[in-house]
Amino acid sequence: MKLRSLVVIAAVWTLPTFAQELVVYKIVAKDGKLEPALIEVPAGKRFKLEVANEGTTAVEFESKDLKQEKVVAPGAKASLSINALKSGEYKFFDEFHESTAKGKIIAK
Ligand SMILES: [Cu+2]
């Protein structure tokens, strides 16, 4: 009896940890560029975006499709949690360098 309750407690304890292990996709912003400009993610799964600004000026990572907006100072990183996406394309851009810095996420 005692052992069985311990096993149940252990199972419940570990579940949330697994749920939080999200895949991280890294985007590097640098002097008006975002790399990679194309990211493929599985549809229906939450994930994280990590935006690293390796340039010399601030960037604003923005995606209306993903409802995200984040200013990242030079040398800083930002982490964004993205909810599960339906299949499709989701554009993103750096609003401070909008003419050149754009990309998209493809969920499928
Ligand atoms: Cu903005």
Tally of alpha and pi helices: 1
Largest sheet: 5 strands, mixed
- CATH fold description: Immunoglobulin-like
Overall structural domain count: 1
> How many E strands?
9
Distinct small-molecule ligands in the complex:
copper (II) ion
Compute the CA-based radius of gyration: 18 Å
Helices and strands, in N-to-C order? Answer: HEEEEEEEEE
Name of the CATH homologous superfamily = Cupredoxins -  blue copper proteins
Strand order of the largest sheet: 3-9-8-5-6
List segments where confidence is low: pLDDT < 50 over at least 5 consecutive residues.
none
Explain this structure:
The chain has one helix at residues 2-20, and strands at 23-30, 33-35, 38-41, 47-53, 59-63, 68-72, 77-82, 88-94, 102-107. The model has no long low-confidence stretch (mean pLDDT 89). The protein starts with a helix and ends with a strand. The protein has a single domain (23-107), classed as Cupredoxins -  blue copper proteins (Immunoglobulin-like), CATH 2.60.40. By secondary structure, the protein is an alpha+beta fold. The chain has one helix and nine strands; from the N terminus they run H-E-E-E-E-E-E-E-E-E. Strands 3-9-8-5-6 form a five-stranded mixed sheet, with no helix packed on it.
